[in-house]
Amino acid sequence: MKWGEIYRTREVAPERGHKPGFYVVVSRDFIAGHDDISTIICAPVYSEVLGLRSEVVLGPDDGLSKESAIRCDFLALMFKAKLTGFVATLSLEKQDALRRALSYALQLNP
User: CA–CA distance from 84 to each of 11, 13, 96, 97, 100 (Å)?
Assistant: First the structure.
C-alpha cells in the first residue's frame, strides 16, 4: 500500500449506510507499506460532492463509477486487512489536490 491509493472495503459499515466503501490511503509510505503495521490512516470517499475545500472530487478517470469526493474532514484509522480491493492510484494532479485538502482540513496552513 502507498499514499494516494484508493481501496474498496469488503465489509459493510454502519456509518456508510451499511455498504462497503472506498478509502484513500493518507498514511506515509513507510507506515502504509510496512507489513508489521496493521493499521493506516485513510480518507473516506463519499458519493455526494459538497464542494468543500477539504474535499477532492474524483470520477471515472480516477477509477470510480461516478463522481465522488474524498472527504479529508473525516479521516479514519483502518485495518489494512479491510482494504481488500485495490482500485487505482491518484494522478499527480489529484495527489496535489489531496495534499491541499488535508492541509486545509487539519488547519496546517497559516
Answer: 9, 14, 25, 25, 27
Where b means 16+ CB within 10 Å and e means fewer, 39-75 reads ebbbbbbeeeeeeeebbbebeeebbbeeebbbbbbeb
Residue found by looking up cell 507489513 in the block? 35
pLDDT tens across 85-107, in order? 999 999 999 999 999 999 999 99
Spatial contact of 20 and 39, defined as CB atoms under 8 Å apart: no
What's the CATH number of domain 5-105, 3.40.50.360, 3.40.50.10310, 1.10.8.100, 2.30.30.110? 2.30.30.110
d(Cα 78, Cα 100) in Å, to the nearest integer? 22
pLDDT digit string, tens, across residues 22-39: 999 999 999 999 999 999
Helix, strand, coil % (nearest 5) of the chain? 30, 35, 35
